[in-house]
Amino acid sequence: MKKDISQIRTNYQGEVLDEKQVKPDPLHQFEAWLREALDAELTEPTAMILATASTLGMPSVRTVLLKSYDEKGFVFYTNYKSRKGMEIEENPQASALFFWPQLQRQVRLSGILSKTDPVLSERYFKERPTESRISAWVSSQSQPLDSKAELEENYRLFEARYSSKEIPYPPFWGGYCLSPYAYEFWQGQPNRLHDRVEYRLDPESRLWHIVRLAP
Q1: Full-model pTM
Q2: Tens digit of pLDDT for each residue in 154-187?
Q3: 10-126+172-213: which CATH architecture?
Q4: Which of 192, 196, 200, 212 is catalytic?
């Protein structure tokens, strides 16, 4: 029987998020929420839904994994020649979303993307499992592929070639850092009266302004 998805609803009962009680620095607020997501042992707590767009405004979205963060921004790694890499090259404006449904929370970021220092990218690449380092080389990410068998064969050949040698760092692969100028913290509440708190960076004073948004 076809399910009527229009009737699917969740009645949220989350903790109260008060704009007068959040931390003054949004990075510290994010860190507190991420720590709770990690402590709750959620599936993929560092999954970050990343939205980019071309210069023509054609959007695309996908999930990447957050690998580090600090006052400079949020870092993930990818193939620079992938679709997202090409879009970032054209248009560095991006948005990202963390969604933790078990905690009835989400965090949205808006900011500018830039490549990380190649030294940092290479250091992280060498920390990855061997299988992941091989995959970075053999997959021409986002490009058409004749078959999965072709990809698997390329993997086997590369694995054999470097069975006793160090896998080099690929020049087409590395990190991006999303430097936010806005954060939004969302906490589910009963009757769909959700709590939304936005931090927006003043470009002149470099101070964060905190406001409550209507749900």
Answers
A1: 0.93
A2: 999 999 999 999 999 999 999 999 999 999 999 9
A3: Roll (2.30)
A4: 192
